[in-house]
Structures are given as C-alpha cells and as structure tokens.
Amino acid sequence: VVKKAVRRPLSLSEKILYSHLDDPSVAGDIVRGKSHLKLRPDRVAMQDATAQMAVLQFMSSGLPTTAVPTTIHCDHLIQAYKGAKADLEAAWKENAEVYDFLATAASKYGMGFWKPGSGIIHQIILENYAFPGGLMIGTDSHTPNAGGLGMCAIGVGGADAVDAMVNLPWELKAPKVIGVELTGKLNEWCSAKDVILKVADLLTVSGGTGAIVEYFGEGLQSISCTGMGTICNMGAEIGATTSLFQYTPTMRQYLKATRREDLAIEADKFASELLVRDADFKPDMYDQLVKIDLSTLKPALNGPFTPDLRNECGDAMKAALQKNTTWPRQVSASLIGSCTNSSYEDLSRVASLAEQAHKAGLKAKIPFYVTPGSEQVRATIERDGIQQALERIGAVVLHNACGPCIGQWKRTDIPPGQPNTIVTSFNRNFSKRNDGNPKTHAFVTSPEIATVIAFSGDLAFDPQKDSIPTPKGPFKFQPPKGDFLPSKGFDAGKDTYQPPAKHGSSVDVKIDPKSNRLQKLEPFKSWNGKDIENAIVLVKCRGKTTTDHISMAGPWLKYRGHLENISNNCLIGATNDGNGKENSVLNVLTNKEGEIPATARQYRDQNIPWIVIGDVNYGEGSSREHAALEPRFLGGAAVIVKSFARIHETNLKKQGVLALTFADPSDYAKVQTADRVSLIGLKSFAPGKPLTLVVHKGSENIKIPLNHSYNSEQIQWFVQGSALNVMKSKR
Fold first, then answer.
1. CATH superfamily of 300-467
2. Strand partners, 660
3. Domain ranges in the chain?
4. pLDDT above 90 (res 554)
5. pLDDT score recorded for residue 555
6. Residue 722: closest CA among 620, 622, 602, 625
7. Residues 305, 168: contact at Cβ < 8 Å?
8. DSSP string for 394-443
9. Which residues are tagged catalytic?
10. CA–CA distances in Å: residue 218 to residues 62, 110, 251
C-alpha cells in the first residue's frame, strides 16, 4: 500500500515507519521533517523508573488490558555498591513497594514483567523481542538499541507509550533520514563503539535531532549484530529519533542463537526486498550523507562532560591534556558494561585482555567494575570462564542492571567535589551523571580501551604503542580477540520473567495513600482561555541543560512514582544565568535567593504563572517525562528556548506546558531570571502562527516573537490541560 502511494524509492527507515501508519494510504502525502505521522507500534517497553508514571497514567484510562504487547523491566533501581549479590538483595528490600506495584499492575493489565536481576531493558529486548522490520517505542532514550536487529525502536515519554497502550495512534513528526555510509574494515583495536564515537564527533549532540540515522555500505560486514546495537544505542547522544541497520547475516545468527529461528526464517524471505533500502534509493536521496572509512578509525575517548568531544588515544589525548590543564590525567576508576556495551562479544574481548594481563602478573591498577547486560549474558560468561578471568585481575562484577551508567553508584573512594577522571564504556557523560560529583571528568570509550586503562591508570595510554612496566620487563597488550556468540550457546540462567495473569480482573493493585514512593495522579487543570499575563521567569538556564539537570536521577529515582516528592528536584542542576549558580534564584515575592523547587511552589500557591528560559538543545538526554511533569505540577506555564531535544519537547506538550522557541535565538539575551513577562496570542493559538513574549522592563515592554511546532491536536493538549485529559474526554 505504501509503495503504491509513495511511488518513489524508499529508505529502509521509511519502509518500516510508513508500513506502520494507522492509514498507510496517506504515505504519498508525507514530507520528511514536516508531516505528522500517526503510527501503530508493534510493542511497548518500559523500565522500572519511567514505568511507574506511565502505568499510573494507563490505570486512569479505565481499560482492562494494554492494546499492544507491553513489558516492564526492573533495571534502574539497583544501586551499585558492594557487588552483585548484596546489591540485588538491598534493591529488593529498599524498593519492595515499587516492585510489588509494578508486578501486580503488569499482571492485572496484561503486561510482561521482568524482575530485578533480569538485566538491562535494552539487552532483554534484543534477546527476546526485537525483530527486523518491527516498530517499537520504549520509555527510555536508549530504546534505539534494538536497531542492531533491524528494528525501528524509538525512545518516548510515558504519555506517548500510554497512547499505544490504550489503542490510540502514536504521533511522530516524520523524521528526516541521515545516511551513514561505512566502508573499509575496523582495525584490531577498534570496535563498533569507535564508529558511534566518530559519528558523535561529526554530527554533535544535536546533529541527529528530528532524524533517523540509517547505516549502510560494505563496512557492515565487519560489525556484528550486537555491535550494531551499540552504535544504535548511543545514537541517542546525537539527538537522533533512532538509528537503524539493514538485515544482515549476523542478525540471522543472533536470532537463531537466542531461540528465535522462526523469525530468522521469516526475515530471510524478505531480506532483499523489504529489510533494506530500495535498490534505486541513491545515497544522495538522504537528507544528509556522512561517509566513514572504518579502516582509518582509531580508538578514541569522548569527553569530558559531553559525548561528542572526541579524543583519539595516545598523542591526540596527550595534546588535549596539555591544552586542558584541569583534566586529571590519572584515572580513578574504569567501568565497562551498561546497555551500550555488555554483550557476550564485548565481555569476551575484554576477557582476552584480562588474560594477557594476568599472565604478565598484572592486576587492575584502579577500581574496575563490570556490568553484564542480562542474566543470560551473566550466566553464560560465568559458565565460559569469562567472569572468572575478570575477577582474577581484580574486577568487581556488578549486578545485571544500569548501575553507575545512570548514577546508581554509591561511590566512596572519591570525596564529593574532588576533581578526578573516570573512563567508561557507557553512552552518556554529563556533569554529575555517574557519581553525582560535578568534578568527575567522565570519558566514554570502548570496553577494550577502558580495560587497558584499568591496568595503566593513564588517560593517555595507547595500547598500540605503550607498554606497562612489570618485574619481568615492559608488557605490551596484543589486540583483543573474542566471540560474537558463545560456542556452547547461551545459558539462560535464572528464570526472572513473570507473565501476565490469565484473568487480570482478579488481581488487586494497591497504592498506600501514605506512601512516599507512589502517588495517584490528579488531572492537570485546563487552560483558562486567557493570555498568560505578568508571569515570572523562574530561571533562565545557562548553557547545556539536559534532563539530568532538570530532573536528576541517582538517589531521586526512588521517587519516580510520586510526583509531589520527585518535584523537589525540579531544575536543581540547571545553572541560573542570573547569578551563575545551581539551584539558586531570586524569589520575586521575598526579594531573597531561594531554591528553585521551593520558589516555584510559592509562585504556584500564589496563583502566579512562571516560565523557564533555556539555551540550545534544551532537554537533551534521557526520555524521562518527569522533566516535563515536574514543571507542570509546580505551576510552570511555558518553556522558551533556542532549540529543543525531540523527546523533551513532546513531553512538555503532552503535559500541557507550552514548548516554544525564539524566532531569533539572539533574543535569549533580552530576558533574565526574575523578569516579569506575558505570553500574548494564545486566544488565536494555531499551527504555524507565532506567539509573542512581552518582557516588562520597568516602563519598557520588549516584544519577542516565538515559534512553535504544534499541530491542531497538540494544541488541544494545551487547551484541555494535558494529552491524558484529551484521551479521557474521548472515552
């Protein structure tokens, strides 16, 4: 139907997306980057931190079961501290109330439930649910990991997931398509991680916004299916809607190895026609084309504080250290794993390096932490001796969970505020991201480079040239070797899956009214039909403002199901342009400095609307909708920025917060924290029609034009108070 409607060559991502249109016959009218698509995803996946709010929203719909296959994965609430066994036991004890809520809700409403200890959501998806040509949405920004199996997998906020769960079409602005042509072959010290580190360097943290990144070319032959997952996973760091690979032989091998041979057989039938871009779709038909010769890539480390600052190992890093004298060269910890790099292949390759070091009499020089991606991977590396090889050289194997990658790391070796450097195979390295310390300089790299640095302790160590002194003489690593798949097959390990109840109506989902972890949602108020007059600028955010700055993770994860309590972290990591401080703003009512959440509550309680001013790519990072729910709950009326990250912009819209951009980005300079402002033009709010911000500076009124990307349906989200209110009004 799509081919008949479009009548032009299609990219792979277009084939998959348009085939999932609610009405595929309209595909011929689609304009990439402009049209709004109404899509029918094949499934929904949620991790435990974001699932709490999404499930609460779904429960308010009154439906007995979800309309599409849906799963919940417990991976975010396990804190890394003492090691796998102790940390899992502590998580069960501390989070029992939340786990019980999610387990019973899943059982009642027809959702699969993966218990704590199962593994990281994206690895579980790859092992069990991802398939070539499918469309999935997940309440985590790294959902695109499933692109390693040729699936169009997109990170969304909880309200978007609820759309699919209640059988409403899910809306997405038609993405542009960026083609990345890979030629050549990776050298022995490079891995798939080095590909995405280079792409991030070329496209930056916002270069993929509003686009799907589609990889093609002869270079695919040297990258495994799980390596492709790594590339797609970290595509979130360039703002991409998702990333995608065409069907390859390694995908077939992986499907068979994970007990899904039937899917491999079906995929083979359509491999040459549907699971690749059309033969007559030429590279110049992409909206943007990037070319990378894999043969020229060198191992690199990206950072600190941003995932797009690339530094090649060795001489280039030494030059960067000489230029940036505040970067500590001595590394304080090395961490590998996370959803980005925790496959069997990753861990078998680092184990080969650990074996070399062990034979040379070496142990890890610095703390070295390893996170397996799933119970299946953990059980298999234990059976095959990989875990033992890592523990022999001093590595601490953590539980199958997100852990330090999302700030769930109870770090005790470095005092807060002490400058230090860590290297990780994670995907994100914003300030405070891993350990809550703003002075921790985090560099993301491949598991292989993170491993050799664990022995050298030197950020500028280049395993291709440098050696490590030992009593027997200098030791030099040989290139890593490993297996894509285990020769004995995967060991499934412990059964950690709970299927939904056959008769969910009999299951009782309880929320204690006195709980400080869970709270039923109350509907937000609808618009009063008036322009927003004499509002206060709560804070003007300076520079990078990610969802980590707006709604921190780490110790705050425990409150993700309790909107009132989680709102106490609203914008506490943002830098106030007015004074250069975090979590400190002028309270216009008291004329004193105050914390941002408390100031916002006071404005709300006095019925005074407030707004936020933001910089470029505001809201980049995680998919967490709490970064939109919290401002809404505290009385926020609008967020006005130079530009938005895709997911956060949608999340704000869904919760009834006006998401607006400066028509002229330089107008950002004309407004400041604590200014009085008005938003004019709301009575005639319409698609494509600008609004006006009026800044009241004494007797002067400065008018600033504002743009927006709302369509007619999204405007109703604002009018009725939220997308959830609109959904309820139709039932």
1. Aconitase, domain 3 (3.30.499.10)
2. 640
3. 1-295, 300-467, 532-730
4. no
5. 86
6. 625
7. no
8. TPEE--SS-GGGGT-B---SS-TT--EEEEESSS---TTTTTS-TTEEEE
9. 75-76, 140, 428, 622, 624
10. 51, 43, 16
> Radius of gyration of the chain from Cα atoms?
25
Q: Which CATH superfamily is domain 532-730 in?
A: Aconitase, domain 4 (3.20.19.10)
Q: Do domains 300-467 and 532-730 have the same CATH topology?
A: no
Q: Which pLDDT tens digit goes with each residue over 639-652?
A: 999 999 999 999 99
- The size of the chain, in residues, is 731
| Closest among 481, 504, 626, 617 to 565, alpha carbons compared | 626
pLDDT band, very low/low/confident/very high, at 262 (cuts 50, 70, 90):
very high
The order of strands in the sheet holding 211-216 is 242-245, 211-216, 176-183, 288-293
Residue that has been written with the tokens 């505290």 in this structure: 634
CB 148 within 8 A of CB 129: no
Please give the Cα distance from 284 to 712 (Å, whole number).
Answer: 33
**Placement of tokens 């191992």 in the chain:** 299
Per-residue buried b or exposed e for 278-311, using 16+ beta carbons within 10 Å of the residue's own CB: beebeeebbeeebebebeebbbbbbbbbbbbbbb
The topology under which CATH files domain 1-295 is Aconitase; domain 3 (3.30.499)
CA atoms within 13 Å, Cβ hemisphere of 524 = 31
**Residue 127: C-alpha distances to residues 118, 120, 145, 305, 490 (Å):** 12, 11, 11, 31, 10
Comparing CA positions, the residue from 210, 211, 305, 302 lying closest to residue 643 is 210
pLDDT digits (tens, 9 = 90+) for 501-526: 999 999 999 888 889 999 988 999 99
How far apart (Å, rounded) are the C-alpha atoms in residues 1 and 212?
Answer: 22
DSSP 134-180: -EEEESSTTGGGGGGGT-EEEE--HHHHHHHHTTPPEEEE--EEEEE
- Asked if residues 89 and 308 have their Cβ atoms less than 8 Å apart, the reply is no
